[in-house]
Amino acid sequence: MFHTNCLLRVSSLLRAARCLMPKRHAAPKTVTCSHRCMSTFHKKDTRHRDANFGGADYRTDKVFSSRSYSTSEAKLNCWNCKQLLDRTPSFFCDSCKAIQPPEEGASYFKILDWLVDYTFTLDTHKLQKRYLQLQRTLHPDNFSQKSVKEQEYSESQSALVSKAYKTLLKPLSRGLYMLELEGMHLKEGTDSVAESHFLMELMEINEALEEAQTPEEVNKIGQDTKGKLADLTELIDAALHEGKLDIAKELLTEMKYYANIEEKLESSQTLHVFLLDVVISESVTDLVVDYGSGP
Predict the structure, then answer these.
(1) By the 8 A CB rule, do 77 and 84 touch?
(2) Is the pLDDT of residue 61 over 90?
(3) pLDDT score for 20
(4) How many degrees, rounded to 5, is the angle at CA 163 between CA 107 and CA 111?
(5) How far apart are CA 290 and CA 284, in angstroms?
(6) Which of 83, 156, 202, 233 could form a disulfide with 95 if both were Cys (CB 3.0 to 4.6 A apart)?
(7) What is the set of domains in the chain, with CATH numbers?
(8) 53-67, 197-211, 246-260: which has the minimum mean pLDDT?
(9) Which of 285, 237, 231, 238 lies closest to 258, judged by CA?
(10) Cis status, amide bond into 89, omega within 30 of 0
(11) Which helix (H) or strand (E) holds 155?
(12) 16: pLDDT strictly greater than 60
């Protein structure tokens, strides 16, 4: 009887919570870059992919070439000892070991360089490894006994590395950033994805999510969404590799919608676990009280 009542309470709370959940999530903010930065996409051998992008001819002989968008080719000098810095961006001077200010206009790829490739399908494990390595070195706690200027540079560098990592970690924000390095932006309210079949598919997914009553149903929607995002990741990578920036932009717009669905799924599952924990905790408390009160 106790088990049945507990399940009924969980079901009731979940239905109430589902009604309170927002119907739509705001689209992820586009990462902006005020400067044209270094951008190099690897030309690599990949398996040939055929795709039908609204009738557009996807296959092309044009291969995206390596191009430089650095704001300045001038060499930089250390602010402390005035020695020429060996590489840019430089976090420390090789001569006096002083921490350097962030280089204006350096791309996020370049900030997390040496272990991270300039490619859409980068290795996120290497990305995380490089991020943690830099944060251990640049953390403001390491400069508490240094000059005010060095403390400020440490905070700025640490914040910039965090921003670069968060931007490159997820395929959506990474792809949008790569387009921005090429001067293309995905503005709010100007989405080009308006085909009726696609909008209908999104509506059906959202309705299925709202009507899902069991974990199995929610997991099925989640697996389908992850599969769609994986397919889009491959297509976007191919489009960028071929220099089809307009197509990459359309695909990223589509990815944005599926990423919103995935976010809603994660929020729903988190709420489910939270409510279940609350119900179980309350039930255990009631049981202890009843047991302690005796007959």
Answers:
(1) yes
(2) no
(3) 39
(4) 35
(5) 10
(6) 83
(7) 189-293 (1.20.1280.20)
(8) 53-67
(9) 231
(10) yes
(11) helix 148-169
(12) no
Let me know: does 21 contact 267? Beta carbons within 8 Å.
yes
- Of 271, 205, 261, 272, the residue nearest 25 (C-alpha): 261
- Gap between the Cα atoms of 76 and 94, Å rounded: 13
Separation CA 46–CA 294 (nearest Å): 72
Residue 282: both structure tokens together: 């309350």
Picking from 47, 6, 99, the residue whose alpha carbon sits closest to that of residue 238 is: 47
pTM of the model as a whole: 0.66
**Other beta carbons within 10 Å of 272:** 17
Give dist(CA 31, CA 173) in Å, integer: 7
- Which band of pLDDT confidence, cut at 50, 70 and 90, is reported for residue 215? confident
User: Would you give the DSSP letter of residue 66?
Assistant: P
How far is residue 32's CA from residue 43's CA, in Å, rounded to a whole number? 25
**DSSP code of residue 32:** -
What H or E segment, with its residue span, contains residue 233? helix 215-241
Query: Which of 41, 56, 72 shows the shortest CA–CA distance to 177?
Result: 41
Reported confidence tier of residue 281, pLDDT bands at 50, 70, 90: low
pLDDT given for residue 289 in this prediction: 52
Report how far residue 240's alpha carbon sits from residue 247's, in angstroms, rounded to the nearest whole number: 8
Residue 39 pairs with which residues in a beta bridge?
67
Scanning the structure block, which residue is given the tokens 């995002």? 229
